[in-house]
Design a protein that fits this description.
By secondary structure, the chain is of the alpha/beta class. The protein is built from 20 helices and 24 strands. Helix 3 packs across helix 4, helix 8 packs parallel to helix 14 and helix 16 runs parallel beside helix 20. The longest helix is centred in the C-terminal third of the chain and has 21 residues. Bound molecules: 6-O-phosphono-alpha-D-glucopyranose. 6-O-phosphono-alpha-D-glucopyranose (G6P) binds next to helix 10.
Length: 599
Amino acid sequence: MCGIAAYTGKKNGNTVILNGLKKLEYRGYDSAGIAYLQNASINILKSVGKVENLKELALKDKVNSFCIIGHTRWATHGKPSQENSHPHTGNKSEIALVHNGIIENYLELKQRLAAKGHKFKSETDSEVAAHLIEEYLKKTKNFEAAFTSAVKHLKGAYAITAMYSKEPGVLMAAKKQSPLVLGIAEDEYFLASDVPAFLEYTRKVIFLEDGDIIKISPTGYKITNAQGGNIKRKISFINWDSASAQKGGYKHFMLKEIFDQPQAVEDTLRTLPLNIEKSFSITPARAKKIKGFYIIACGTAYHAALAAKYWIESIAKLPAEVETASEFRYRDVNFQKDWVLAAISQSGETADTLSALIKAKKAGVKVLSVCNVLGSTIARESDFTVYTHCGPEISVASTKAFTAQLTALYSLAINLAAARGALSKKEAASLYKELYRLPALMTQALKTREQIRKIAKKAYKKPSFIFLGRNTGYPLALEGALKLKEISYLHAEGFAGGEIKHGPIALIDAATPVITLMPAGKTYDKMLNSCREVEARGADLIMITNECLSNAIVLPKTGENLFPIIAAVPLQLFAYYIADLRGREIDRPRNLAKSVTVE
Ligand code: G6P
């Protein structure tokens, strides 16, 4: 996830773009850059770190241009650095381009272009698009034609905006599966990943759609498809204020991030084959050597680790031990031969997780990590890293990182199983087929929003909540309780459904709602029994299931394995609405930090 802001008009666009990028920093903040047209040539400024650093450079350079493209980066291919930050150019600086998304076939394109004499300066997937346009310009000499031809060869997700020094004032853009909005004002046009980037200049916008190719200049705009056919899109008027616009119109970042999940999971899934085969390279020989897993993590990531244990054991048929990193680092672990340590961390900087990882490394254990932040310390210290692709998670309480971690870990279990021969190719393909339905299933799960808001309205004054689950529903029970306590400051505990009789049932009375996680499958009937037991003690029951059950929150039907990823959605919404009704500061709960880099 990165942020794009672009301007063409009649005034100096410097302030427009730098302020716009600042508003988009929530989309990425590891480096930033602009390309601007001056005296018919393109100048580029880049800086590592926040947009503030870029502002200083622009001030020194006295940037004054009526046509500027800008970018704030969240690294996916290549570490955060001057070379990897956008805008990128071709061999000559006649083309400059900014990109948000992932170009899946960039290696193949890179090879073809290199054979034609293109020299690449960065490790990014994005740079190939600039070279590709340059290549087509040799033939067509026409920016629009070259841009349109180049875009046809890109696979994956992209929002791209490009400029060409020989057609001053013209910007070309394309969109597929990454957001891009056009802002319309008098003799000036804006393109951005999100509305807040230009909201102070215009409220007249077009939300571009997949496949759209856009041409803007101070004299107007044109939208076409890849075949050159003209397209008419509806103009919308924005009536949100600037602060809520930054959250995409949502009241809090947490709610926005809950709704970002289908996209985050899709982006993670899209890169997994590359991630797992190329980075982790689970060749059959290597996979067969692995005898087991230690999985360590903290907080929400620990709950993802717990779910992974069920998958690794049941699908890959390997033993897995899960422990919070803070315990693992001080325990006398008798490391076993050919066991791998998997560290799960959104930030890749959590102190306990890092220390536990270093301890394993020192003992000669191979380390795999699942991280969201490219080039983070945990990723750098690992032998292999599988990246989730959520973009920055702003809300302290983790939501989209959790479901993306689950997605990556589930996929890892399938891959391992296939490589070890625990699953036939056909069986693995069928599990994958279901996994690829996940973004659509999560979109369906989000439709429970109104039902959950109503349930939360009835429950938010209760002092204490119990979450119950069995099998992969158990880690989810822990996560549901954690989410609720983190942002509502209410007492909440998660238990394995079978443990209720061994103590927790003493807590249950009419003042204690019980949330049960009940996937169709081997533990469903057992969970129904637990429901009857708590109901008999007067508790309000909130059942989350994918079976046809009345008075329950019913999720789309899937195999048991996918249940925790989908059922995370109603749990997150439940915690969110309770906290909102109690007037809590949801995105920054008291006493908590997003990244805990001290012990
Ligand atoms: C903090 C955050 C949690 C997070 C945990 C682990 O406690 O508040 O939301 O789950 O750290 O963070 P990591 O970045 O390692 O996933």
